[in-house]
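Subject line: Sequence and fold of a protein, written as structure tokens
Body of memo: The sequence and its backbone structure tokens, given next.
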Amino acid sequence: MEEVETAKAEIHRIIVHIKELKTSISMLMKSSFSSVKSRKKLGEVSRYSQDRVSCSKLSADTYVGVDNLLQNLGGRTESQFVPTAGTVTAYFNGDILLSNIRPYLKKIWLADNDGGSSGDVLVLKPDNSVILSQYLFYQLAADEFFDYEMQHVKGQKMPRADKSEVLNYLVYVPSIEIQQSTLNKIREIHDEITAQNGQLQELTLQKDDILKKYLSSVP
């Protein structure tokens, strides 16, 4: 079974490398903070969406509820339930959507389309003249932010973030030039992560095929 062991070793190497790449994103962000003398409250650089959209205009791909926001920074998937009557909070491309329930699940998504969301989803609209949406997203998609949310929750069985306290979270706002330069570097890292994930899937399939052939040959 030398082939299987070789594949396993390569899979482990790639997994470790992907973790290192993700850590380097965090390090890049922290490095970009060095030029900032004082932080700003989240409410100074963004606001909650006050816009509404008719549910009749929404689909499984454009409605976001707590259930189709994925845990651990997984983004979102298509909704299994879309309301058909009334209106909901509208979001737009570039807005940041956060689950307001059980912040420790780390459900957050940077919108890449326009749509609507349930009342249990916070929709943040960054002021892009001050802070770029993606740059703010990386600051909020961090343990420090979710830990902060958990320090200000309401309720025990189903803890909810305190919407007013969320806006008091302090964020770093370097110059737009520094933000963009940082995001350019992060984009290159994400390209490498995508490539590594592709190799990981391919190797996993190869390992499974080898195991199937081996097991089928065993009397």
